[in-house]
Structure prediction request, 228 residues.
Amino acid sequence: MQTKLKAHILVFNLALILLFPLAMLAQSAPAANSPAGPVPTKIGLIDILRAMQSTNEGQKELDELQKKFAPKQAELRGIADEIERLRKELDAESGKLNDDQRNSKVRVIETKQKALQRSYEDAQNEYQQAQQDISGRIYQKMAPVLEKYAISNGYAVVLDVSGQQNTVLWGNTGTLITTQVVEAYNAQSPVPPPPSTAPASGAQAKPSGASGSPTTQPPVATTTPKKP
Prediction:
């Protein structure tokens, strides 16, 4: 476990750290209006994480972030090296120590190990948040570029292959078949459509205007389909 922790300290795992919240993609993904003429059918694939990292802006900001955290990485590496040294000393002196001495050294190592783990987690969380902020800023700028490229090149949908759960980054609304599927389902379903809400009769608006004479307006009935 200590060896794995030490390895993680030396290099932060960018593949994991760059994962930003799913909501960010869901809220930012643009959708185009239905184009005139034939509906496009091409499907585009993009590794959005690698794309953001590969931009000049992304490389610059990630490099600056790495430099900012370099001192903390060196500090954590030094603590890990000290713990490793204490463990080796304990193993070398194992036959010469009584139980109290051995237990005392073990407690010192365990205390340092716990402190290192907390420091590592705090640093990693801070680094991850900084990475997410960078990714969010770049994606906000990349989203309209992605939309323009997709429309110009006749794509119906662009899917993300970077491993995010939300794979659809952009879709042409002309390819949506929600209404068609609902109509097809209703056509084979024995359940009749719900009754429409009839406008109430005899409704009268409150008096308005300086003269105080009432004006009557029939209420407008609206029905909003419930989400499944």
Remarks:
- The longest strand covers residues 155-160.
- Helices lie at 2-10, 14-17, 22-28, 48-54, 56-92, 99-152, 178-188.
- Confidence is low (pLDDT under 50) at residues 1-31, 199-228.
- The CA atoms of residues 40 and 156 lie 5 Å apart.
